[in-house]
Structures are given as structure tokens and as C-alpha cells.
Amino acid sequence: MDILTQITWGYMQEKLDEILEKEPEILILEWALLPIDSKYWDKCNLKILMKADEIERKNKVMQRDRIAEEYFLKRDANSMDYNQIEFDFSFENDYQTETMEQMIEQISKLVKKE
Length: 114
Fold this sequence. Notes:
By secondary structure, the chain is mostly helical. It has four helices and two strands, in the order αβααβα. The chain is 51% helix and 9% strand. Strands 1-2 form a two-stranded parallel sheet. It starts with a helix and ends with a helix. The mean pLDDT is 83.
């Protein structure tokens, strides 16, 4: 994963800077595009963590990426420890449309207040 980041991160920063120059009202970035040690993390005015059941998450990732469990476990062991990071919101993703709609509604209310 580090190799992929090294290859793509420069280009992604360039594109993010172009977008930010236009001062968009709302910009949503997925964590893979926003490493905590990047210059963008502290610029965020709202940080949201989407958690999922570990077994369900593992199965979905293995299916999506077509990888074996051993590879998933190795990759997951090297991933970010979310317990060390402070988020404004933390949601449990149960992969149900109704739950996602409720999360979006809560976040929208908060964003409108700002």
C-alpha cells in the first residue's frame, strides 16, 4: 500500500490544491485520500469515522479486492489505528440504506449550522 501511496500522492495533492483554490462550500474526502500527517487533515472542519463490524468489513474487503484472508490480515495489521485519532462523529456502518440516510441527515444538520 505504501508503494501505491508514493506513486499517487503527489498527483492527488496537486488535484486537491486545485480544488481548494476554488474554495468549495463543501468538500468530502475519504481517509485514504487524507493521511493524518498530510497538510489537509488540520484544515478539515469536520472529521467523521465510519466503523464497521470487523468480520463483515473483512469479508467485504476480501471480496472487493479479491484477496485471501492471510493477505487481508497482513494489510490490516499495517493500517491506521483509529483509536488514536479524534473524530467529530463516529458511525457504525451496518451497510443498510436507512442507516446511511440517517447519518447523512445528522451530518447535514451539523454542516448547515456552521
